[in-house]
Amino acid sequence: SLHFQTPLREKAAMSSIFFDNHLPLADVGSVRCIAWSRGEDTPLLAVADGANVRIYREEGEEVPELVQQRSVSCTALAWHPAAKVLAAGWEDGAVTFSGPACSSARDDREVHRESRILSITFNPQGSRCVTTDNNGVVGVWKTDAKGLCNQMCHYRKPGAHDKVVFRTMTPSGEPSLDNPPFFFGGDQGIIYLADDFGLCSERYKVGSPLQLLEYYHQKDVVVLVTKSVILAQFSLSAEGKVFNESKLKLSCGPHPERLQGCWAGAGILATCSHESIVRLWNLADDESYVLSLQGVDERHSLSGDKVTSIDYNPRKQVLACGTRSGRMVQWRCSTISGTPKSENSWQVLPVITASDCMIDKLTWGPGENYMHVRTERSSIIMSEAQLNSAVQSPYLAVQTAPMQVLLYNIERKNRFQLTTNFRVKGLSIGGHAVMLWNSKQVMLYEIDADTMSATVLSSFKHEGGNIASAVLIWQGGSERIIAVASGEKIEFTNAQGHVQRSITFSSEVEGLPISLDVNGSFLAASTTMNVIKVWNVQRSQPKQVGTGRKFEGIDQQSLGDIRSVRINKDGTRVSMLVDQRIGPGGTHVGGSLRVPDSRLFVYDLDSDNFITYKVGTSCVPVAHSWDQTDRRLMCCEVVPQALAYDGRSTQESMPASPTSALTKSINGSEDKSPQHCVITLFVADADQILLQDTVSCVDPDSSGLPRMPVALVVPHIYFSRQVGEMSSPEGAPEEEHARSMITQTVLRDFAGLEDMDEDTTAALLNFSYHLACGNTDEAYKSVKGVRSTGVWESMSKMCVKTGRLDVAQKCLGQMGHARAAGALRACIEPQPEARLATIAVHLDMIEDAEQLLKQCGRFDMLNQLYQACGEWEKALEVAKTKDRVHLKPTHFAYAQHLEAVEDVQGALTHFEFSGTYRTESPRLLCSLGMTDDLEGYVEQSDDSHLHRWYAQYLESKANLEGASREYKKAGDWLSLCRVACFNEDLDRAQKICEDSQDHAACYHLARHLEAAGRIKEAIHFFQMAGRLGHALRLAQENNFDGDLMSLALSSDPVNMSQAAKYYEQRGQPSKAVVLYQKAGQQKRALELCFSARLFDALRKIADDLSADSDPAILARCAEFFMEHSQHDKAVHLLSISRQYERAVQLCSEHDVQITEDMAERMTPDKNSMEQAGRAEILQEIAKLCKKQGSFQLACKKFTQAGDKLKAMKSLLKSGDSEKIIFFAGTARQPDIYVLAGNYLQSLDWHNDPEIMKHIIQFYSKAKAHDKLASFYDACAQVEIDEYRDYDKAGGALREALKYIVKAAGAGAESDERVISLQNRIAMVEQFANVRKMAKSEPDQMVAVCEKMMDMPDVESAVRIGDIFAQLVEHYSEVRDYDSAFRTVERMRGRGIVLTPYLDHSLLETIYGAAGQPLPESEQAPPPPPVHGADEAEEEMDEDIVEED
After folding, report:
1. pLDDT exceeding 70 applies to what percent of the chain?
2. Helix 832-842 and helix 859-868, axial crossing angle in degrees, nearest 10
3. Among 814, 813, 816, 868, residue whose Cα is nearest residue 837
4. What is the CB neighbour count within 10 angstroms for residue 590?
5. Of 261, 1217, 1325, 1350, which sits 20 to 30 A from 1245 (CA to CA)?
6. Nearest-5° Cα angle at 67, 63 to 69
C-alpha cells in the first residue's frame, strides 16, 4: 500500500489512501505503451507488453479472454471514447480493433504496410480514428461503438508523424465535434490540416521536430513545442491563412529533450523537464508561473528531487507529477470557474511514495480514483479508496491496509489484527461478528471477547454482480442478516450468502442503490439518482419507513449527488455527504467537475425536510457517524480543501449553538486557516443543527501528526494513528502497542467524568444538549437529581467552557464552593468572559481562564493571573506587549517577590525596571545591613537622585566630606554650597556658584553674605541668582546709585518702576524717564519729559510710539512738537493718532516734505471713515505731492481717491513712459487713453514701433478718431520728410481718411476736412505714380511734374522740392545736364534749399557739365513743420493744465 506523506502546513485526512496494484508483467521494460478506457463503469487498462496486449481491471486483475498476441510488438494503443473498443497499432503496420464491446476482432494491414504505427487518435465522438506511421502515412478510419472500422482515406507526407490533434472549433466559434478536421505533424516540423474527404494541406512550418502538439479548443488555437524548445501558437482563418502567430523561447532547464506537457485547465499548459519545478503557461493571458517542489513536504524533504512526468485530471482538477525519487506530488486547482492566475490558485496535496525509482510516466484513469504509474522496474495501478471503520459497542473496527482490519475492544482496550486474502472495500459490525466485503465476496468473522481473536464464520462470493455496498444486521442472539446492494436490488442473505429476501429498485425512477448504513434496527440506502430510503429491519421482513425521498429542494432542483449516508439510532434522521457537479464557467448544473460540498445535510423523516450545516470555509466533511445511544448527537470529520462548493447560492450554514461561543476562542480563533478536526453536532429539531464541540485531529502524542477519527462513543471520540505505524517496536508488548494504535479523547462536556454510570452519562448528555439549545432551565432540570459533587464540579467546568454564567452559578451552589460563588458575586467586570475567568481560576482551570481573558482583551487581569500563579515571565511578557500601563507595577511586584525569596540582585534589577529603585533599593540594602553594597550600588549608578539621597545619608552621619562628594556627583550645587557655607568656606562657596551658575546656590550664598555684611558681594550673587529685587533693595538701602541703574535696567517692570521713583525722588529725571519708558509707563515718562523739558528723551519716546499707543499721549506729543516747530515729528504723531486732516493741513501750512511712508501713514484705512472724507484727504495729499514734484506719489493718491484722470495727469508730468502705459492700460477710461496717446506722440515714436503701437491702441480704445486721424497724418508727413516714401505716405493718409470719416459722422461727405484730405491723398498718389513713370514714360512724367508745379495748393500734399528733384534726377539719368541745370536754377529762383532734395555730388556734376561754379549754400527758410507732433505737445500741455 502507498502511504501519505503529509505536509505540515496542511494536515491531511486519513480517511482515504492510495493502494498500489502491481501488474504481474514478466518484463516491465518491454512495456511500450498503455491506455485507459474512457468509461467510469468497469475501468480497464490496456498494456502493450512486447508482442502481447493485456487488459487489466482497476485492482490489477488481468482479463485473460481479452489478451491479444501477435508475432510483432505493439507500438500504439487507444480506447474508443464511448465504448470498450481498443485500437492497437503494431510494428508491422497492422491496426486491430478489439475489446469487450466487439463481437470479433478486426484488423487491417494495407494502409500502413510494413511500417511501425506511431499513434492512434479518436475524435471526441468516436466516429473517426486517425493512425500514423514512421513512413509518413496518415490513415483516416470510420469507427463506431461496436468496433466496426472502415478505411476512408489516407495521406502520405514526408517524415514520421506522431502528433495528432482534432480541430474541434470552427473559425466562426461554433463547436465541431461530430466530424472535425485534424492537425498532424512530426519530425519535419510541418503542421498539416486534413479531413476525411481527402483534403490535406500544409498550414504551418516551424523548422524543428515537434515535442508537443496540443489544441486550445476555447480559442481555436494550435499550440506546439519543438525539440529546440520553441513554444509556438497560431490560428487559421476561414480561408486557411495563418494569423495571431506567436513564438516564445521556453526555459526548460538542462534537459529539454525530456520535456513532457499536458493541459492543466482551459488555456493552461503545464510542462516539466527534469527540474524541481513545474512550469505553467497561461496562454490566455500570455503569462507564466511555476509550482515548486521546495517546501511542499517539510517532514520528507524533496530537496534535490526532480519532476520527471506529469498528467492532469480535469474531473478532480488535480495536476499530478512523478519525481526522480519515485514520489507523486499533486496540486489541486482551487479555482472552480476561470483560469488559475498564479501559484496561489493551486493547493498542494499530500505527497505519495509510489516507488523507489524514477517515475517515467503518469496517466490518470477514468473518473477520479485511478492512475497508472510506470517506472523502469514496475507498472502500477494506483487506486484511491476510503479507509473504512465501523463501531458497535464494545467493538471497533478500522481498516489499516488493503487487506488488514484492526479490531479493538473499547471496554477491555485490547486489539486483534485481521488479515484477509482479498482487498477490503467495506466492513460492518453486528453483535460479536465483523463482516468484510469487496465487490466480489463477503467474509464473516466471529469475535471472541475473552481472547480478543476472530475466526472465520462464513465466506461466500456474490454471483449476481458487483457489490456496491453491504452491511451486517444483528437482530439479537446469533441471528445475523447481511444486506447487499448490487445492481438494482438490495438482497438480504444469511451468513452463508443465501438470499432470503430482496428489495428491487427502478433504475429509471429511483436509480441503483450505492450506499447502505445500519444503526440498530434501521437501515438507510441512497441510490445513483439520489433517492433516500429507510427500513425498519428489526423483524424478519424489512418494513419501509415513510416513502422514498428524492434529494432535491422545494423547487425540485437537485441539491447534489449523495456520496454516503448514515442513519441515527431511532431511524428519524439520515445524514449525508454530498458532491456537486460544476458545469462550465462555475455554473451549478450537471458538469464533469465533481466538487465536494462544504455542507453536511441531514434528512429529517418526521418533517420531510433537509437541514444543512456548513462546516467552514475551504473545508469539506469527509466522514460522519451517529452516536449509538443518543439519536440527537453525531460527529463529522472535516478536512481543509480549497476546492469546495460553499453553497452560497442556496442556503447558508445554520448558526452555531450558544455552547460553541467559547469553543472557538478556547480551541483557536475562527479566523485561522482551516484545520483538520472533528466536530460534534446536535440535531436539535427539524430545522436546526448546533455545534457542540470541536476536537483537533492533530495527535499531541506523535509530534503533531494527523490521526483519523473512527468512532463516537459517548463520552469518547476514538482515533486511529496514522497509517504506516503498524509494526510494533521491537520488544514492545502487544497490548501496549495496541493502545498506541487506537487513541481516545474525552468529549469536552465529560471531562473528568469518563467512568460515570449510564444514567449519569445520559443526564450529562441531556444537560449538554439543552445547554446547546440555550434552554437553561431544562439543562438544570436534567441534572437536578445528581448528587455527586464531582459531577457538579465537572458541569461547572463545562459551563466555563460553554460560557454559561447563569448555569455556572447554580452548579457552584450545588457543589458548595462558597469561595468561588462569593468571588463571582464580587466580580463587577462588564465582560462575561472576565467573570467566567474568575470562576475558572477557583476551579483550577488556569488555561481556560487564560484563554478567556485573552479573548475579551482583559490583559490586565491576565497579568494578575500570571502573577498569582507565579508565572512571572509570562506576566512580564503580557505587560510588555499588551498591558503596558501595568508594566512598571508588574516589575515592582516581581521585585517584591524576589525580595521575599532573598534574591537581592534580582530584586534590585526589577526595582530599577519599575522606576522605584531610588527609594526601594536603598531601603532593601539598608534593611539588610548591606552598607558596603549600598555604597557600591550608588557608586555604579548614574542616577542623580540616588547620589543626592546617599549624600543626605552621609550628611546625617556627619560625613560632610563624603556628602560634598556625593552632592557634586548628584549636581546638587545648593547643598554643596550650603555645606561650604556651614564650614565658613566662603571662597569655595563663591567658586561653586561661579562655576555652576546655579541660581539656588547663588541665592543661598547671597543671603549668607548679606548676613555677614558683605553688601557688594551679596548684590552680585543676588544678581547671579536672578533675584534682582533683593539686589535693588540692598542698592537702595546702601545708596549704591551706580549699581542701581544697571540692576534696574536688567530687572522686571515692577523693579524698574521702583528704581525710577527712587531716581525721581533723588532729582535725576533723565534716568527716571529711561526706566519709566523701559517699564512701559510712557505716560509717566512723557509727563516727566514735559516738566523737565527733556527734548532728546521726548524724541526717543515719540519714535517708539505706535498706533496702539494712548491717543492722549500722541496728541500731547504732537502739540509739543508743533509748539517747538518740529513739524515733521508732529505730522508723524498726528498721522498715527488718526488726525489725518490736521496732519495734511500742517504739511500744507509749513511745507513739510511728504515722503512715501508719511503719505501712507496719512492715508486713512478704507473702513475707518466715510468714503467721501477719505477721498478728500487723499486729494489734498495728492495735490501737495504734485506741488512738491512727487508726481508718481500724487498719481497713487489720486488713484486711491478715485480720480484716475488727475492721477494720469500727475503721472504724465513724471515722464515715466512705462508707468504711463501701464496705468493707461489698467485705468480703462477714454480720457486717460487720449492723454496717454498725446503724451506718447511727444516721444520719438517714429523710431520706436512699440510706442507707435501703443499710440494707435490707446486712441482706438478711446474711440478718438480725430486724434487717430491726426496721428496717421503725422505718420504720412514723416514718411515724406524723412524717407520721401510717398507710397507709404499715401497708405497712412488713407488710414487717416478712414478715421476722419468716422469722426465726421453722418455728414462726412461734405466735411471740409474730409475733402481736403481726399485732395491731398489724390496728389500724393499722383506724385507716387509719377516716380514710377520715370523709366517707362519719361516724357509723360516730365509733363505731369510741370503741371503739378503749377498747382496752387500742391505744397499741402507734396513738397515742391521733391517735384523739382524728380525732374533733376531724370535729366541727370538721361545726361541732359542743360535741362537739369535750368531746373536747379528754377529751384533756386523759388528760394528752395537744394541740399535736402539733391545730393551734393549730383549738383557738382550738373554745374560742372554746364560750366558754372557751384553756388554757395544759401540759408533757406526751415521746411514746413510736421503736422501733428507740435500740435500734440500743445494739446497735451493744454490737457494737463489743471485748475486748483
Report:
1. 76
2. 10
3. 868
4. 11
5. 1325
6. 165
Among all chains, which residue has been given the C-alpha cell 531601603? 923
Residue 661 is given by DSSP the state T
Give rounded-to-5 percent helix, strand, coil for the chain.
Answer: 40, 25, 35
Rounded CA-CA distance 1147/1159 in Å is 11
Range 1309-1316 average pLDDT = 70
Q: Is the peptide bond before 715 cis (omega within 30 degrees of 0)?
A: yes
What torsion, rounded to 10 degrees, do the Cα atoms 471, 472, 475, 481 define?
100
C-beta of residue 989 within 8 angstroms of C-beta of residue 977: yes
Q: Kindly tell me the sign of the dihedral angle through the C-alpha atoms of 552, 558, 559, 565.
A: positive
**Could you tell me which residue, 1187 or 382, shows the higher pLDDT?**
382
Q: Are 1082 and 1097 in contact (CB under 8 A)?
A: no
The maximal CA–CA distance of the chain, rounded, in angstroms, is 174
Mutual orientation of helices 1028-1037 and 999-1011 as an angle, nearest 10°? 20
**The pLDDT of residue 945:** 79
Check if the beta carbon of residue 341 is closer than 8 Å to that of residue 310: no
Cα torsion angle, 80, 86, 91, 92, sign: negative
Binning pLDDT at 50, 70 and 90, where does residue 240 land? confident
State the residue for C-alpha cell 470557474.
337
Task: Give CA–CA dist 481/521, Å, rounded.
Answer: 12
395: left (phi over 0), alpha (psi -120 to 50) or beta: beta
* 743: nearest Cα among 776, 719, 726, 727: 719
- Within its chain, how far is the Cα of 86 from the centroid? 55
DSSP state of 1281: I
What count of Cα atoms within 13 Å lies in the side-chain half-sphere of residue 429?
A: 23
Q: Which residues pair with 388 in a beta bridge?
A: none
Nearest 10 degrees: CA dihedral of 965, 967, 969, 972? -150
Q: Where on the phi/psi map is residue 655: left (φ > 0), alpha (ψ -120 to 50), or beta?
A: beta
Which cell goes with 1050? 536688567
Give CA 599 to chain center in angstroms: 31
Rounded to the nearest integer, the mean pLDDT of the chain is 79
β-pairing, 379-386 with 149-156?
unpaired
With CA atoms as reference, report the closest residue to 912 among 929, 937, 932.
Answer: 937
Is residue 346 over pLDDT 70?
A: yes
- Is 812 in contact with 827 (CB distance < 8 Å)? no
Alpha carbons 991 and 973: distance in angstroms, whole number: 11
CA atoms 1057, 1059, 1062, 1067: torsion sign: negative
Average pLDDT on 1278-1300 reads 73
Q: Are 330 and 275 in contact (CB under 8 A)?
A: no
The edge-to-edge listing of strands for the beta sheet with 716-720 is 708-713, 716-720, 742-746
What SS3 state is found at 360?
A: strand
Rounded to two decimals, the pTM is 0.57
Task: Write the pLDDT tens digit of every residue in 871-908.
Answer: 999 999 989 998 889 999 999 999 999 988 888 888 88
CA distance 700 to 523: 37
CA dist., res. 817 & res. 830, Å (int) = 23
- The whole-angstrom distance between residue 1084's C-alpha and the CA centroid of its chain comes to 72
Q: In what order do the strands lie in the sheet with 414-419?
A: 389-392, 395-401, 404-409, 414-419
